Model the fold of this input.
Amino acid sequence: MHKRNVLALVLLLCLVLSGCGGKDPVSGTVTPSTTVPAETEKPASLGRLEGGIYTNTYAGYGCELDANWVYYSAEELQALPENINELLADTDLADSMEDVFQIMDMKAENAQDLTTINVLYTKLGLEERLAYMVLSEEAIVDGVLTQKDALIAGYAQAGIEVTSMEKAQVTFLGETHYAVHTQAETQGVPYYILQVFDYTLGQYGVTLTLSSYVEDITQELLNLFYSVE
Done:
């Protein structure tokens, strides 16, 4: 389950908004400016973990998880990229990841409820950042879903059978947001994934991924988050 959770996270991210690892942003009118206005960006910073409380001022949200949850240590988070590359080595997606720089900022697992939460940063090039400035949240999700067939094929190579991958409206931080909702099976066990994207913050796009086995409680996991400044 651990390895499949990691791979499930990456399969959507490695093609997010593009078909080749983030080199070509999805369609949208890019402004003629060659710089990103400083006032539109947040200074990049990682989240902070203290006790069971995760606070991320860059992403603008945090959560407090109870004793049933186990956070990955800094050392475990740093090891994840290597594990990801190993898992992708024999798939058609391996080349897509060569030029992608990602940081796993937080990962937590709840063995009791068979659920996981991940916060991942993806470094954006200048052209991508300019493109994302003119895209709505819904357009970003639509961009992810343009790669639906490739993503489903990638899941299949990992032994995960996707039964649906759709745009969803969810309640997040007290407002309605667009997300990608995926329903799948792995070794006959139902598997549900909900992903919320924010690629308009600055040099890094942030993806929040929530997953659960057996029962779809991804919205309940999303409700654990609150706004922070």
